[in-house]
UniProtKB/TrEMBL annotation:
InterPro entries documented for this protein: KH_dom-like_a/b, OsmC/Ohr_fam, OsmC/Ohrsf
Region (Disordered) residue spans: 1-24
Organism: Oceanihabitans sediminis
Highest taxon, organism lineage: Bacteria
PANTHER family: PROTEIN YHFA
Protein name per Swiss-Prot or TrEMBL: OsmC family peroxiredoxin
Length: 140
């Protein structure tokens, strides 16, 4: 299967990229790099893609397990190399779950399935970065 996205220059340092489903996203850079910060940076989008991919897996598995959570958030951190081309050499993805009487065993299983089996974006990241993960439970 091949995915195709088209990315169109919108002027200055701004680009608009489409998605196979037709949605678009704006990319830009910071003023110190000639942009206006009017969109997401490409490297930040990579971290968002990682979290989104894994998050979709986790929510799907938890739904199938009939596990209830009140809220779920992921924080992704990317450490860049010093030299050009700068890329993420280490990436940390933190999973935060909120709710009452969280089923930690099932939640851990859902996260592990994403990390080890389902998340293709995470597998891509492993080709160039040390990927670290952690789970945090916030019981109310």
């Amino acid at each position: 299967m091949t995915n195709k996205v088209s990315t169109h220059w919108k002027g200055n340092m701004q680009f608009e990229s489409d998605n196979p489903n037709g949605k678009t996203v704006l990319m830009d850079t910071t003023p110190e790099n000639g942009g206006h910060s009017s969109g997401l940076s490409p490297k930040a989008m990579m971290l968002s893609s990682l979290a989104g991919c894994s998050g979709l897996d986790v929510v799907s598995v938890l739904d199938k397990m009939k596990v209830k959570i009140a809220d779920f958030r992921m924080d992704a951190y990317g450490e860049l190399t010093e030299e050009h081309p700068k890329y993420y050499h280490t990436v940390t993805l933190e999973y935060h779950f909120y709710g009452e009487d969280l089923d930690e065993k099932k939640i851990k299983r859902a996260v592990d399935l994403s990390i080890e089996k389902y998340c293709g974006v995470m597998e891509m990241f492993r080709k160039f970065a040390n990927v670290k993960t952690s789970i945090h439970y916030h019981n109310k």
